[in-house]
Amino acid sequence: MVSAAVLHLWVLAWLASVLAAEDDYHLVIAPQSPVVQIGSNLTAICMINNTTEVTADDLYWKLSEIIPKEHYIKINSSALNVTVTIRSEKSEWLFCSCKTESHYVVLNRGKFTHGIWLRKGYRPEKPKNLSCIAVQESDTISSNIKCQWEAVGHQTEAVPTNYTLFIRQTGDKIYTASILGPVNKTTVDLNLFPHHMELEIWVVAQNELGKEESEHLIKLANCFVKTKPPSVAVISEAVFPTSLVMSWNSSIDKSYLETIYEIRFCPLGSQKWFYVPLADTSRYIQSFRLQNLQPDTVYVTQVRCKYNNNNKHCGYWSDWSSNVTERTPEDLPKSKPDVWIITSEEGLNKRQIEFICKDPEFSNGRIRRFNIMIEKQKDSIRNGTWEIIPVNRSLTDGSSSKKQITPLKTITLDDEESVTVYVTAINSVGASPQAKLIISRKTREPPAVEKTEVQSHNGQLFLSWKPPNRTVSEYVVEWVSDGERNWQRENGKTNYTAIKGDLKQFVQYRISVYPIYGKLVGKPVLERAYFEQGVPSQGPIVNLSGDPGCYTAKLEWDEIPLIKRRGFITNYTIYYRSGTETRGITVPANTTSYILTSLSRNTKYDIWIKASTIRGSVNGSNHSFTTLKYAPGEIEGIVVGVSLGFLFVVLMTMLLCFCKKDVIKDNFWPQIPNPGDSTIGNWSPDYPLKAEAPRENCLSGISVLNVDVCDAKCVFEEDKASLPLKKDKYLSEEHSSGIGGSSCMSSPRQSVSDSDEGGDMADTTASTIQYSSVVASSGYKGQNPSSLPQQSIFSRSESTQPLLDCEENHDTMVQEGSRQCFLRQPCFTHNAGNENATDSNDFNPLEMEQQEVLDFCPLEEDTEHTAPADCQSDDWIPAPVSSYMPQLGGYRPQ
Amino acid sequence: MNGHVKNMHFQQFMETAATLLSLLLLMTVDSTKTVALSTNQQCGNLLQQTLKITRIVHKESGDLIKTYKAAQGEMSELFCKVSVNDIPDPNISGLDPPARIASIYTHLQAFLPHFKRVYKQQTDLQSPGSPLLKELTRVWGRTESLASFMNTFYQSLFPNLPIPEPAGGPTTLPPAQNVFQQKVYGCVVLKTYKDFMSNVSKELRNLKSKVCTKRTPINAF
Description:
The complex is a heterodimer. Chain A is of the alpha+beta class.
């Protein structure tokens, strides 16, 4: 109530001062432009000034929208109060307006509205977690102190919070630094860092809504210091092989601040730090001796420091100093060297054994040499001598975490021999304990372990085995890859170990387990394994074995080199593609050749092979080939087959010809009756025979053709060429009865050609002569047309037999007298209605039939021009009844 | 009767008052003892802080002389062997701790104008980024701080004794000097100041046993 009354009084007093300045406005709001806290209630009053046009009842309030009347309080007729809760963060206007619509109000609308700008914000909250730090610059501490804190609560842009950092130094000297806005750190410059003086530091957060102060941080100035790390030096002392002395210089003078130290160290390469207890170094010291270290080991050391406030821990640790390494002095080797063997076959019944050795686990120094003595077991006394194997190894090799393997000696041993080897390692201080190993006879090697198994798990390769029945003192697990060899020893009671070497991915290891009985080496058991398998880095290279066939091709490929195999090959897949069709065939991993079948002939194939491991597959290179169009020998077979077939046909033909020669002869060379054998000569007694005597021989080959209807027809069809001859003969007989006087007349064909090529007759007659004869059944048909028609027989020979001399002579002889007759060309036509048909009526029926087929043409036209004139020449000698003289001489087929 | 009664009442009152006074006295003594203990502790802390700050100033003044000599060129070693008037005495005067502490304070105050003058002179002689100027500024500021701290220390030890100002009024500075004189003057001031700080360190170590360990009635001075 009191506060409300005070508020009213304040508002009225303020209004009294404002109203005078705002006479022009009839509405005035109080307070003007207030800063309001978000979440709190705002009370404002709207006063009506210098008007009676409106009353408090006519007023209304508007924020983002009209405020309901429930929030209004009417103070009097000219004042209206409103109370609203501020919720949003966004600043906005609060208006007081009049809803009356009188003329005056309408005309002076601006005077009847008044607004105030509400700036909204949050009250600042107490900053938390104030912390300050002063870092070292060069050899002193910077005068700038950097402080940061946690700004609690919210702030708005309209009402930002200003943070002021206060640092009060002894003597009430105060340094400040202010920063505005949502920033939570700042730096104060003290001009001079006040070592050993107390500082009081705090932060004040302030805005228009209030002010909050953080808790005061009261500490010695040195408690805010973070120095640079000290510079460290480490030395080793030869008489203390397990100790190193560290010394350092503080980065800042002791007068400024005393520091305590913390020390840590580790062997080089190790990530595990060993910390010296703070109780030993929590004082201002500048050296420290590290003890119980390993001899001949490089250690890395670091130191850091912090202000020592009488063991009241305050301040900041410096960063760790940079690494300082030092090697501890050497000491006597404290353990045996790790001697081992590499065995290989060397001829029949012999073994080659190479002794190799690792430095003792606690070599305590660089091994300079090994001493080795090999004793043969034949003798009961020691018969060996010590040999010195110098070790040339740099210092850095010895510092490597991986133990170096030194080859000691190689011997050749009979299978029936056994040896014992003794090895000691010597460093600069002395010799190690003696290591011993016994190589037994090969035939009496102690039993091996059983049932080994290798598994890769959790980034390690584990090997398990089943122990043999005998008591094993220890196991040697050896692994070899790409010429790298290593081994580790395991307790004789274990049957499971993880290989401790630095195994590589995708490399095949041959892992062997050797049981050691006492010092006697047992038989090994070998396993192959990958620490991690991968996809082969190279596919198999496929090639054709020989030439491809028509339908098959033999493929060959080499195994992928071990280094590129990167895993166990599970299978190969052979792909072959022709055109767009690709086929694949999967074959086992141990296959290196395959015969592709079912290929197409004369087709190009692309082939490649995919090698697969459990991790994936990789394709090999492509190889192309084309299958053959013909298989080898196929062409030869065809040629031979065709040849044989042809030969067969020829043979068969010949055989057929041979067997059927008579038929063929009959068909192709019909037998012409020998005119000599003809009875015509004899039959015609009127015919003088005196001329026959010299031609008897010539007529022996003449055949007599008995032309009947059938034969005539056949002849016509089979050899039409001969028909003109026949007709010619007939015509000759009819028109050139003089021919009959020429016993060696040329063939009818020749006679035909004679008409065309009369000049060549002599040559033609020299080549072939056809013999023909028309034998008139009724004797000679005279040229007298009135004479009765007589039946005649057409006899013919088409022999190409050269004429006999007698014939030629006769021809020559005849030609002289009857040349014109030979040139006369008989022409016949196959016209039954010939004008001369009347003449044919004189033929007998048989001849009539023949006449129908071979009807002679009188060739009147021709004969009108030639034949009649020639034939009726003066040389013409009337022929006897017989139209032809029988031709002598043999018959020769054409 | 009445007189007897009054006497009786008075006697009882006196007994009660005596008891109360005794109790009050006892409490006062105990309180004084506690205050003395806490005061001793505070004294020790203050003295220790003063001693540490003095060591810093001593160390920095030694570094400053080295830097100064290095910055002055040849014959710098000779500069410091020349005597100069009007330089504060490096020795601490006074017979008792308050006087000696006051002497320290007044000496520190007396050196400040000299530092100011040397700084001004060296500003003309050195480049602006010279280490000498930085160190000179640092020692100068450290001296002011030590003087302020010494004042606080003195007032905490001897709250009822006003700390004396330098005798004879403000520090007297030498007249205008040439460059050589300036160099000699600066070196002598710094060397004297270093000697003075050495003496202060010794004095404060001695004071520790005299001032803060004895249950000296604080208000006796």
